């Protein structure tokens, strides 16, 4: 009798595990990665460091793409953290210049671009 009960529970357990795995996979893929942020904003680095006087169109394309990808609060918070990390890793980045880039590209990010921004408070 115990073997019969266990065999009936096994398909339910397998379904429960598969559903849990699917939910974890979908939530993990929802957040923006630092790789995406870096790739999207790489064309902006010469402008943000003062090595280019004009804002490249490819920078604005990246900003717009990243803004479109950041649909949820978790996405925007992840992008904020990655942006701060990227800014820390790029020598001679001018955060004042960085803060102007979204506006120059016609994008409203909904939070201040600053090293003092608390990314956890972004909704």
Automatic annotation (TrEMBL):
GO biological process terms, semicolon-separated: lipid transport
Record flagged with keyword Transport: yes
One GO MF term attached to the UniProt entry: lipid binding
Domain Bifunctional inhibitor/plant lipid transfer protein/seed storage helical: 34-119
InterPro entries attached to this UniProt entry: Bifun_inhib/LTP/seed_sf, Bifunc_inhib/LTP/seed_store, Plant_nsLTP
SUPFAM superfamilies: Bifunctional inhibitor/lipid-transfer protein/seed storage 2S albumin
UniProt entry keywords in alphabetical sequence: Disulfide bond, Lipid-binding, Signal, Transport
Signal peptide: 1-30
SMART domains found in the cross-reference section: AAI
Function summary: Plant non-specific lipid-transfer proteins transfer phospholipids as well as galactolipids across membranes. May play a role in wax or cutin deposition in the cell walls of expanding epidermal cells and certain secretory tissues.
Family the UniProt entry places it in: Belongs to the plant LTP family.
Protein name, UniProt field: Non-specific lipid-transfer protein
